[in-house]
Amino acid sequence: MREILLLIAILAGLVMTLRWPFVGVLIWEWFTLQNPHRETYGFVSDTNVVIAAVTLLTWVLSKERKVPPNGAILWLIVIFIAWTTLDTFFAYDVNWSLGYWDRTWKTFALGILLAATVTNRVRLQAVLWVAVISLFYYGVKGGLFTIATGGHNH
Asked: Among positive and negative, which fits the CA dihedral 143, 8, 13, 108?
């Protein structure tokens, strides 16, 4: 049942993303922080790639600004991604390192996309509220689990 509800939410969000690419950025942020697809067991567990692809495609085709704010932080992030990429491919165990590298570059790609698309106060507040609600979910879930088990399980 939760898989169907999550699929409906994803499809509704992707339809809105076709009109407003920033909605896709918010969905991508939600999937990065809360990982709702990890609580399902079927085909919905692999939808984060579809969300990222649709978001990036609609953003590239939109008339929105495409350049993130130029500054030292952006260049340090780019240098860090290049450095971790180089380190990953020369690692002792490349197969073990690729999983961490994959997660790292996707996270930084979302960060650069957020920097490019958050252009006003309303969008900044939307990004912050998605983060707050995503983390609030785990706080409530963990608190209820602790109360239910009396603090004996981790």
From this structure: positive
Whether 4 and 105 have beta carbons less than 8 Å apart is answered as no
Cβ(31)–Cβ(130) under 8 Å?
A: no
Element (H, E) at 99: helix 94-117
Question: CA distances (Å), 136 to each of 50, 133, 139, in order?
Answer: 25, 5, 5
Whether the per-residue pLDDT at 40 is higher than 80: the answer is: no
User: For the whole model, what pTM was predicted?
Assistant: 0.82
E strand intervals along 1-146: none
Angle between the 72-89 and 94-117 helix axes, to the nearest 10 degrees? 160
pLDDT (0 to 100) of residue 37: 77
DSSP states of 12-53:
HHHHHHHH-HHHHHHHHHHHHHT-GGGG--SGGGGTHHHHHH
Tokens of 88: 């990953």
Rounded CA-CA distance 154/139 in Å is: 14
Which 8-state DSSP code applies to residue 110?
H
